[in-house]
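Q: Entry one of two.
A:
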Amino acid sequence: MLDWLMRWPHETVSSKQIYQYAPRAVRSNRETAIKTAEILEQHGWLSRRKTKTRGWRVWEIMRRPVVFPSVEG
């Protein structure tokens, strides 16, 4: 999901957008999508934004470089 978020063209993402557009493994059910977003929030990739409507979930995407380790072999 992190790879998908880095390619997402908007600054924010809602739970509804995750259900519709995220990778299939994440959108298998609502609870999985929310838990995945909360894990990314804990690791600093998403920041929860306040909404006017109760029950809506919207996160701001915290874009930063992703460093892939090199493996010598």
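Q: Entry two of two.
A:
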Amino acid sequence: MRDLVGICGTPGTGKKTTAPIVAKLLGLPEPISVNALAPKGQVYVVPARLRTSLLKMKPARAVVFGHLIPHVLKRSEVAMVAVLRCEPSVLKARLLERGYQPGKATENVEAELIGVVLDECLRAFGSERVREYDTTSTPPKAVAKEIAFDVGRKAKPSPPSWIDWTLDYDSSSKLRSLLAGAEPRGST
């Protein structure tokens, strides 16, 4: 399973839309959704069970997507992991449009703001295998082309400069505005 291409990111960043385009550009079968490997109706997802389900599929070369990739795949199994990123205020609007409850949307926006998924991917796969792609205003087809290009590169890319959304939210008023509408933690 050394030739897996992972597509990861906070919910709402475009994984489900981008993954099939990347697979097609790379001449691979339909991508595998890590989330879809969980049994229907299961409330708590166990990454080890998702891994077992994936290993049973024996994908030699495939695109695998989902925010749990760093908890399911091992470093030696991936050729590259693309982490999709989205400016937090745009992500918030996307999630609310999808019907996310305000508290859940804010939880995901907070995770994107501080780069939780990026950090998990860097720890799991190392910076040499992880690349970021900003999906804030770039269409999925263009993002997919960038990912496919990077997968096909023979030369080692220069060290990336990581996206840091916190630089855009440098005051408490900007943060309060971004995180407004969330239920206070611990409330019922």
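A: Comment on entry two: Residues 3-179 form a domain with the Rossmann fold fold (CATH 3.40.50.300). The two ends are 44 Å apart (CA to CA).
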